[in-house]
Design brief:
355 residues, 2 domains, MetI-like fold, mainly alpha
Length: 355
């Protein structure tokens, strides 16, 4: 390579690095503004709803001077803008106050329950991706056939059926009638006090401890709720895979590959799917974010001790510190995953590197 070529390549690399750094800065700025908006919305919702945090702590029958003292300790006697800045300062320090139900700091409770939600959403996403991607590819290849129609109907049902109905149906059929899986909960009570979690991800912890008996028990509990979530993820992923593949199969390089005599299998799985992989990865990441955010009903139906159940129980008991803290964590994770998907797209798509 000549000196001029090396200088040109260096300028291109420098330009791409500069553009990427600018994109990262822009994404971080957007994320910060979005997070600030999330904090403002959750704060004002907490002040608008007819629940007095002071009364939730001391009870309805507490003397007026006790209620007034608690309100003063919580800063509820301050002007609204001062309350918001105190709230913002506390959130940025990871402080959401104490939970009325557990008397623990809300952040401590969230750290305890979030791994259960993360594990459930991760397994659901894996189920949706490993089944949804091949279905979407086959639907695109067999466009207009009965197979294509079946895949589209599966996706339509996934978009239309309420998650609570599907969850209850799964419990009645696979747990109550057939006995193939365990019921609500996360682990059998026999192992609950003998199994020692390490990371909070029970399946991973059982593998790390080489305890396959506990692993099978945990898997029997998680597979049904994960499959329910995975079905909704499958509906979204298969639909988007079909759309991406149809677009790729119409490109000129596919015609050229067929003219060269390449096998149809290699054209579809090694060329078309490879080019569709970058936007498809973004879809899978966003699907994972949606499962993290939308697992509340699933966790409630299956008594899954995750963040969704924690927020639901807190809301039913007027524990607003826990409700707002859990909402902020879910929103922050959703924002972070969205920004990550955008960055991955920019990093992996060669067309963005040339800009």
């Amino acid at each position: 390579m000549s000196t001029s070529d090396m200088q040109l390549e260096a300028r291109r690399s420098g330009a791409w690095a500069s553009n990427f750094a600018w994109a990262v800065g822009r994404f971080l700025l957007i994320g910060a503004i979005t997070f600030l908006g999330l904090l403002a919305v959750t704060f004002f919702i907490g002040r608008v709803i007819p629940i007095d945090p002071a009364l939730a702590i001391v009870g309805d029958r507490a003397p007026a001077h006790v209620v007034a003292r608690v309100r003063e300790e919580l800063g509820l006697n301050l002007p609204l803008y001062q309350q918001f800045f105190l709230y913002l300062k506390g959130v940025l320090q990871g402080e959401f106050g104490n939970s009325v139900l557990t008397s623990n700091p809300v952040m401590t409770d969230i750290i305890r329950v979030f791994p259960a939600t993360f594990e459930l959403a991760t397994l659901g996403t894996l189920i949706g991706a490993f089944i949804g991607v091949p279905l979407g590819v086959l639907a695109a290849v067999k466009r207009g056939t009965i197979l294509d129609q079946i895949v589209r109907v599966i996706g339509l049902i996934g978009y239309s059926v309420p998650v609570f109905w599907l969850g209850l149906l799964g419990l009645v059929l696979f747990y109550a009638k057939l006995g193939w899986v365990s019921g609500p909960g996360r682990i059998d009570v026999v192992y609950e006090y003998t199994f020692t979690p390490i990371t909070g991800l029970y399946l991973l912890d059982a593998i790390l401890q080489n305890n396959w008996e506990v692993f099978r028990n945990i898997f029997s509990f998680i597979i049904l709720p994960a499959s329910v979530l995975g079905y909704f993820s499958l509906a979204y992923i298969s639909r988007m895979t079909r759309s991406f593949m149809l677009n790729e199969l119409e490109q000129e390089y596919i015609v050229a590959a067929r003219a060269k005599g390449l096998s149809e299998t290699r054209i579809i799985w090694a060329h078309a799917l490879r080019n569709a992989a970058v936007p498809l990865l973004t879809v899978i990441v966003l699907s994972f974010a949606n499962l993290l955010e939308g697992s509340v009903l699933t966790e409630t139906i299956f008594s899954w001790p995750g963040l969704g159940s924690y927020i639901t129980n807190s809301l039913q008991n007027a524990d607003m510190n826990a409700v707002l803290g859990g909402t902020i964590i879910i929103g922050a994770v959703f924002i972070a995953i969205n920004l990550l998907s955008d960055l991955l797209y920019r990093l992996l798509d060669p067309r963005t590197r040339a800009r």
